[in-house]
User: Fold this.
Amino acid sequence: MTTHSKRTLRILTVPAFDDNYLWLIHDGVHAAVVDPGDAQPILAALKTAGLALTAILLTHHHADHIGGVPELLQHYAVPVFGPSNEAIAAMTHKLAEGDTVDVPGLDLQLSVLDVPGHTSGHVAYLRLKEEDGAEPAWLFCGDTLFAGGCGRLFEGTPAQMANSLDKLSALPDDTLVFCAHEYTLANLRFASFVEPGNQALKARVAIESAKRAQGEPTVPSTIGLEKASNPFLRYRQPAIIDSLVAARKLAVGAPPVAAFAALRQWKDHF
Ligand code: ZN
Ligand code: FE
Assistant:
């Protein structure tokens, strides 16, 4: 009988640029990075923590998510995982929904979800809840779901994004949501305008504002919190539909996808 001593995985939050978060998943020795838009903060974090990079995971092709890849590869010759439907130089493993990644160097399996909308090939990575239930699931969703909001529709359609967010909404409530930007307070200002009577949202505004006042990240959030307060997961709620009818001339009885499209458009001009 062999005993496997499983190393505990931890996640380091690495801020970059004005408001990006790059995620380092590590076991104290090896590390995988999600969406390294900039190499320097990752190299610095690896050095400080005494970690060796063993994998790069990409959610979509935007520069603030992949810009650091070439420089990281100069220091670490590691595989680069990313979306099969996007052209990203240096990608070695092309992934789509249904694929599973055995992350090199780590005792970590991630399943891949297709979440088009922000870009047409955007993927998310999900670490399932462990069987003993000790650790919640982890979701790395790039620019699809944000704390209190969602990504802009640069390439996809409202129907695609609504479908992608519905998919994420179906994950367990305690799933930790590691999104790629600190947009939370601006998102919640919009959310409060759209759904002023939402008590969970009011409570969240107070909590997240206090975190930002202390200079702390509001990310990760949880799927449960997003379902309770993020209008882009709540576009079927009567109160939100009423706001869209009143402020954005949404037709009464319009299908949910039309409500979602109107909501996203409203946020674009808010
Ligand atoms: Zn993006
Ligand atoms: Fe981004």
About this structure: The CA atoms of residues 152 and 268 lie 8 Å apart. The mean pLDDT is 96. Residues 199-213 form the longest helix (15 residues).
